[in-house]
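User: Fold this one for me? It's Putative acetyltransferase.
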Amino acid sequence: MSGGRVEIRAETPLQDDLRVLIAELNDAIDSQEPETPDEFKFWMSAEEMARPDTTTFLVRIDGMAVGCGALKRHDASLGEVKRMYLRPAVRGQGLAARLLDRIEAEARSLGLETLALETGLGFKAARRSYERAGFELSGPFADYPDSGYAAFYRKTLAVREADPAASRPFDVARP
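Assistant: Here's what I get for Putative acetyltransferase.
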């Protein structure tokens, strides 16, 4: 699937579109990293993503949900990128970078100073996307253990005035 109108916007996680994407992401983690024990898979359910400290974003092409990501606020300065996923049919089109840009814009609008994330060691394409977006390898953060099953990344956000556009839908039409 390519082309079409791409929308990246904050939406409720308590909808079928997101629940299906979460199930696909969980299956992908299980199949790509079968050796990782369940206690080191730090998943968030749709209900957890609906908490006030988390903003969930859906990527839609012509109205069809094709990806998701979330920003979880740990405190006044630290936000975490969670549940990044794009369906295989839409990968390689720059959507991961656009979704990360949208999450980062939201973090800036909230005055966060740092974004961090945790990902499986086997997700090489995702890790390259994070590195291209300016994330650098770091150690565990928040309450994550140093398990040997994950890679941790961190990005310092430049201090800017709050961006009122960050709270509006990020809507990009493609020819």
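One thing worth pointing out: The two ends are 14 Å apart (CA to CA).
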